[in-house]
């Protein structure tokens, strides 16, 4: 029997539906009441918010709580219950700094706790099983939903209501008739330093390119003090007229630009001139590899809140920050 620390942050798994819609209300002990007892556990309420309302400061506080939990010799693994809307962002931020072999498994629910077909209990039971699994040691931070366990790196919410809304991470395990089958351990780069209080105020904007859009919003973000910009280009990382010049001005002004793609899967490949990805990189944009824009934003927020240089940002981006293609 393992001992698992359950950290609750709110979300649909803790929600009940009233006249004003679903609201996160449940506490960790309420959520954990459904557990089978196959493993022992202790609970801690970190916050109680739907994840679309979380702030970077909450991510730092969750990271500190996980760091304290894995430092406890009595704890074999950690489960974090969290809303699904921004789970991929919090989980990835924690994976960047996770330097313990103990599994950290995020889970949640797609239906509220008071639904007659609530999915939270099953997801929590599976997440505790994964967090207790010796075979998942050194796997980093994971997301467990509806029978599948995948890496936080590369995971993204791809469906608003599906039982398992996440895809894109490396599958590390799955459940068959309640039994966990471990299938892979992701290759992970060296952990980055924990976020400090400067992380709370990092302002990294995501600018999405579309047909005919210009660099006006990009320039506004730079001129109003963004810490960094994530440019979600089209295709393999391309952008329209004026962006290469805007990137050059931003970088020369000390604002790093990470080039990602709005395309749900696949890497950035700076191949096109005529203002495309090759020109953007030549103007100083850092290719974001396989990172989705929202996960590149968490990496840039962490690095720019530390005494990181452009070179360190490039190094962090190019060392294994990958998602399944
Ligand atoms: N399924 C969920 O948890 C969605 C909810 N809106 C949240 O992110 O908190």
TrEMBL record:
Q: What is its EC number?
A: 3.5.1.1
The record's keywords, sorted A to Z, are: Hydrolase
Keyword Hydrolase belongs to the record: yes
Annotated ranges, domain L-asparaginase N-terminal = 3-167
Q: Enzyme group, top EC level? A: hydrolase
Pfam entry (one): Asparaginase
Domain annotation Asparaginase/glutaminase C-terminal: ranges: 203-314
Stored InterPro entries: AsnASE_II (IPR004550), Asp/glu_Ase-like_sf (IPR036152), Asparaginase/glutaminase-like (IPR006034), Asparaginase/glutaminase_AS1 (IPR020827), Asparaginase/glutaminase_AS2 (IPR027475), Asparaginase_C (IPR040919), L-asparaginase_C (IPR027473), L-asparaginase_N (IPR027474)
> What residues make up the catalytic site?
12, 84
Q: Is DNA damage found in the keyword set?
A: no
- Reaction(s) catalyzed by this protein? L-asparagine + H2O = L-aspartate + NH4(+)
The cross-references to PANTHER family, in alphabetical order and at most eight, read:
60 KDA LYSOPHOSPHOLIPASE, L-ASPARAGINASE
The similarity comment for this entry is: Belongs to the asparaginase 1 family.
Name this polypeptide is given: asparaginase
**Which lineage?**
Bacteria, Bacillati, Actinomycetota, Actinomycetes, Micrococcales
């Amino acid at each position: 029997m393992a001992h698992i620390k359950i950290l609750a942050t709110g979300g649909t798994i803790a929600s009940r539906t009233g006249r004003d819609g679903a609201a996160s209300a449940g506490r960790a002990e309420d959520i954990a009441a459904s557990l089978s007892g196959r493993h022992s556990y202790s609970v801690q309420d970190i916050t109680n918010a739907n994840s679309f309302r979380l702030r970077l400061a909450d991510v730092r506080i969750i990271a500190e709580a996980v760091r304290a939990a894995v430092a406890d010799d009595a704890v074999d693994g950690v489960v974090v219950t969290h809303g699904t809307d921004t789970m991929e962002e919090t989980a990835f931020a924690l994976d960047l700094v996770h330097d313990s072999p103990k599994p950290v498994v995020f889970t949640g629910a797609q239906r509220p706790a008071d639904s007659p077909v609530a999915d939270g209990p099953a997801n929590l039971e599976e997440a505790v099983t994964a967090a207790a699994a010796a075979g998942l040691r050194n796997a980093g931070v994971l997301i467990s939903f509806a029978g599948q366990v995948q890496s936080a790196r590369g995971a993204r919410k791809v469906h608003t209501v599906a039982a398992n809304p996440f895809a894109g991470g490396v599958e590390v395990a799955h459940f068959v008739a309640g039994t966990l089958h471990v299938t892979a351990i992701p290759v992970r780069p060296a952990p980055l330093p924990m976020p400090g209080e400067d992380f709370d105020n990092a302002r990294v904007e995501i600018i999405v390119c579309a047909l005919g859009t210009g660099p006006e919003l990009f320039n506004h973000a730079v001129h109003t003090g963004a810490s960094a910009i994530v440019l979600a280009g089209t295709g393999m990382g391309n952008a329209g007229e004026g962006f290469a010049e805007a990137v050059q001005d931003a970088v020369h002004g000390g604002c790093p630009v990470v080039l990602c793609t709005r395309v749900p899967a696949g890497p950035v490949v700076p191949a096109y001139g005529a203002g495309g990805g090759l020109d953007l990189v030549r103007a100083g944009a850092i290719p974001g590899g396989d990172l989705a824009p929202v996960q590149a934003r968490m990496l840039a927020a962490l690095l720019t809140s530390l005494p990181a240089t452009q070179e360190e940002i490039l190094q962090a981006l190019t060392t294994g920050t990958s998602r399944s293609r």
